[in-house]
């Protein structure tokens, strides 16, 4: 009861004093802890994933509130596709499809799938592409939904795409080797044309990237939160934004 009274006032105060010039443009979120949450509350794994999916729309609302422009949500890794039991993956993909459909139907955000869509079942890939197409002209936050995503796979795909492009132009490998730089590779990433993430948030207390946005996060700030993803609240998000705003960014120096 006390928390319900005090937290709104505390949250309002945090928002009021956030410096508008120190808000991250791009926030990456690793939505971790769904299975542990399910075990903690005596639910099955699918209920944990659904509870996590239900927390995505509130998160995007909080991002809108403070002025974030791009959000990347890591929903399923490429490793998960091969390491998890097929029946668990099937259920999770169904939940992801429903969550993405819901985001698209809201008409507030632009959806952009990132990941190796060729690794996904055709139905899932089609649903993700349909969500992207239906929200293409929406002016709201750009939401990258990372499904079947792995950072190493992304870099390999970017290099492969770069090689195909230059082969089509008739560029020899020797000529390409003379001119290739980081910008060439960046132009072929899943997130090409977007700002790199300023802030990466990982829930559940784990303090590792696990392959999330490996290339793009070279200069990112990181925030690790103990809350399991389904329990991640507005106050947790605002604390992450405040912590980011208070840091002196050194950009590798």
Describe the structure.
GO terms for molecular function: ditrans,polycis-polyprenyl diphosphate synthase [(2E,6E)-farnesyl diphosphate specific] activity; magnesium ion binding; Z-farnesyl diphosphate synthase activity. The protein is globular, with a radius of gyration of 19 Å. The protein has 253 residues and is α/β, with parallel strands linked by helices. 51% of the residues lie in helices and 13% in strands. Strands 3-4-2-1-5-6 form a six-stranded parallel beta sheet, with helices on both faces. Helix 7 (122-134) links the parallel strand 3 and strand 4. The protein has helices at residues 2-16, 34-41, 45-54, 56-66, 78-83, 86-106, 122-134, 151-169, 173-179, 182-186, 234-246; strands at 26-30, 70-77, 110-114, 142-149, 199-202, 221-224. It has a domain at 23-150 and 196-243: Undecaprenyl pyrophosphate synthetase (3-Layer(aba) Sandwich).
């Amino acid at each position: 009861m006390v928390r319900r009274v005090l937290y709104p006032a505390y949250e309002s105060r945090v928002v009021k004093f956030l410096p508008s010039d120190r808000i991250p443009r791009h926030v990456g979120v690793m939505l971790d802890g769904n299975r542990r949450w399910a075990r903690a509350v005596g639910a099955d794994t699918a209920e944990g994933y659904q509870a996590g999916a239900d927390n995505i729309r509130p998160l995007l609302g909080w991002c809108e509130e403070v002025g974030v422009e791009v959000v990347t949500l890591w929903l399923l890794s490429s490793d998960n596709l091969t390491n998890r039991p097929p029946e668990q993956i099937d259920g999770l993909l169904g939940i992801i499809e429903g969550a993405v459909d819901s985001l698209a139907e809201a008409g507030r955000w632009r959806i952009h799938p990132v990941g190796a869509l060729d690794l996904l079942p055709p139905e899932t890939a089609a649903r993700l592409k349909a969500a992207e197409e239906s929200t293409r002209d929406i002016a709201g936050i750009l939401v990258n939904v990372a499904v079947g995503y792995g950072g190493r796979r992304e870099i390999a795909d970017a290099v492969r795409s770069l090689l195909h492009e230059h082969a089509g132009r008739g560029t020899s490998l020797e000529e390409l080797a003379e001119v290739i730089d980081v910008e060439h590779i960046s132009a072929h990433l899943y997130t090409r044309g977007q700002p790199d993430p300023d802030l990466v948030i990982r829930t559940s207390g784990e303090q590792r990237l696990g392959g999330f946005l490996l290339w793009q996060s070279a200069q990112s700030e990181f925030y690790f939160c103990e809350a399991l993803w389904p329990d991640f609240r507005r106050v947790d998000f605002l604390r992450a934004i405040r912590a980011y705003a208070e840091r002196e960014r050194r950009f590798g120096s």
